């Protein structure tokens, strides 16, 4: 069971990664387009970042999303959705739960995303070589990938290059639950 709140874990991981890369807060801010003050608040554990902010940091620092969320070498290999999301977006209508953090051997990470009716999340394009695999567990889910719209229901899946603009939407009146696997062509 997690004893460290997710925003504190994100802060510790961000600070550790930034220092390993030899980056000042100013340099990290320039790379990520996240202000120095915001990065400092995240590192201190004073701020719960949104999904968008975590993706900006991950993309700007050229690291995986879950490397900012991971626990230190957890020995558990069975995953279940937590009671509290790791990160949220769109005023809490989109919730992301990390199932398996980034694994450098497989170069994948796995999440569950819940999108409330009317919820929307627009992702920043990821770096070249990132592929997304999304399976709809329940509900109806609409995704726009590089300007093309696709609507999927339960037991349907989609894969696409994550390096293009993409948005997730739930235009139905029921909760949509998605399993998302990210594959990184390069090891981080």
From TrEMBL:
This is XRE family transcriptional regulator. Signal peptide: none annotated. One of its GO terms (molecular function) is DNA binding. InterPro entries: Cro/C1-type_HTH (IPR001387), Cupin_2 (IPR013096), Lambda_DNA-bd_dom_sf (IPR010982), RmlC-like_jellyroll (IPR014710), RmlC_Cupin_sf (IPR011051), TransReg_Diox_bact_type (IPR050807). The keyword Transcription regulation applies. Residues 14-68 form the HTH cro/C1-type domain. Keywords: DNA-binding, Transcription, Transcription regulation. One of its GO terms (cellular component) is cytosol. PANTHER family: HTH-TYPE TRANSCRIPTIONAL REGULATOR (PTHR46797), HTH-TYPE TRANSCRIPTIONAL REGULATOR SUTR (PTHR46797:SF23). It comes from the Bacteria. Pfam families: Cupin_2 (PF07883), HTH_3 (PF01381). The keyword Magnesium does not apply.
């Amino acid at each position: 069971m997690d004893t460290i709140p997710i925003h504190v874990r994100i802060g510790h991981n961000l600070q550790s990664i930034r220092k390993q890369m030899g980056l000042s807060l100013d340099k990290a801010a320039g790379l990520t387009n996240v202000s120095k003050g915001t990065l400092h608040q995240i590192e201190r554990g004073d701020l719960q970042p949104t999904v968008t902010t975590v993706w900006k940091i991950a993309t700007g620092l050229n690291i995986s999303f879950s490397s900012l969320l991971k626990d230190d070498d957890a020995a558990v290999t069975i995953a279940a959705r937590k009671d509290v999301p790791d990160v949220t977006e769109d005023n809490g209508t989109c919730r992301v739960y990390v199932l398996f953090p980034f694994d450098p051997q497989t170069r994948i990470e796995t999440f569950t995303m819940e999108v409330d009716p009317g919820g929307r999340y627009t992702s920043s394009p990821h770096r070249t070589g990132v592929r997304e695999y999304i399976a709809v567990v329940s509900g109806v889910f609409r995704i726009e990938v590089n300007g093309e719209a696709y609507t999927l229901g339960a037991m349907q899946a989609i894969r696409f290059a994550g390096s293009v603009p993409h948005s997730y939407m739930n235009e139905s009146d029921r909760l949509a639950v998605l399993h998302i696997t990210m594959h990184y062509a390069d090891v981080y």
